[in-house]
Amino acid sequence: MSRIFKALVLEEKGVCAMRQLTLANLPSGEVTVDIAYSSINYKDALAVTGTGKIIRGKYPIVPGIDLAGRVRTSSSAGFEPGDNVILTGSGLGELRWGGYSQVQAVPAEFMVPLPRGMTLRTSMILGTAGLTAMLSILALQRHGITSGTVVVTGASGGVGMTAVFLLSQLGYRVIASCGSRHLWHKLQTLGADHTEERLYAEKPLERSSWDGGIDAAGGAQLAAVLAGVRRNGCVAASGNAGGAELRTTVYPFILRGVTLAGIDSNTAMVANRKLAWTRLQELVSEVDANRLLMSTVSLPEIPSVCKAKMAGRAPGRFIVDLGRSDS
To answer: pLDDT digit string (tens) for 166-200?
Structure first.
């Protein structure tokens, strides 16, 4: 096993460079992983372009909030060399060095084994987006929303697209909301029964239109979802690309008994992560995952994809193949 590897390093805010590193350069961590794949999420695009306040660690830092690979060394009782593992969120690519590296040292606290029957590649096509979508669905189900109509906002993004597919697989009627009309056909092929423009509400309570919602947008769209939920419904919220401010009233909550469930996949408990990944393995085949994938890129291509994602030109799921010859 080589001690020399490549990584994409953020030298300072918004300034990336390809670097050749050695194991001695790695931060401390109980587990060292040979990374096979990572992914590009909206949060990664914010970090790499320097657009958002994502990086909370010290520069230089390796970005990338997701990774999947094989354990090289481990001082953790829970993992052994040769184990296939997934790590998403938990400060990766924000507080500590992340997944845009061929090798990385990470804490074992939030890492989970790759589910039996799932490939490392499929796990990163899903990544944080898939985990967030599945945690959102589990929240709806815990609230009793096991059938009926569910609206998904921000449906052109990774969380939204994956949620549309998963809900369809589970038998829900899915309404997909996004402003990218050119993606409506794709959303329909993923299982959306109906597609429409971004949602906006004129009043805090509108006509009851859906049993639940998965909001990956935030802002005015979350307010609109809350306004249209039927009595005793539930909305799982995880995004803020559409704004962090929520303008609503108490009426959806006290007149219709609506529940707003916050989804934070970044710090989700390991037990919930394992459950979500198990359900993802059951619902998403490799063929299905390929339908969610937009493109596979190498390490040097990450900055350009992140810029395109911030400009709205790179929706959906992108994975990073750390084994590509041009990485």
So the answer is: 999 999 999 999 999 999 999 999 999 999 999 99
Rounded Cα distance between 44 and 52, Å, is 10
Angle, CA of 297, 299 and 301, to the nearest 5°: 55
**Cis bond upstream, residue 303 (ω within 30):** no
Question: How far apart, in whole angstroms, are the C-alpha atoms of residue 260 and residue 232?
Answer: 11
pLDDT tens per residue across span 118-129: 999 999 999 999
Question: Which residue shows structure tokens 């799982």?
Answer: 236
Q: How far apart are CA 86 and CA 314, in angstroms?
A: 24
* Structural contact between residues 299 and 7, judged by C-beta atoms closer than 8 angstroms: yes
Q: Which helix (H) or strand (E) holds 162?
A: helix 158-169
3-state helix, strand, coil in the chain (%, to 5): 30, 30, 40
Q: What gap in Å lies between CA 19 and CA 1, rounded to an integer?
A: 19
Q: How far is Cα of residue 16 from the mean position of the Cα atoms in its chain? A: 22
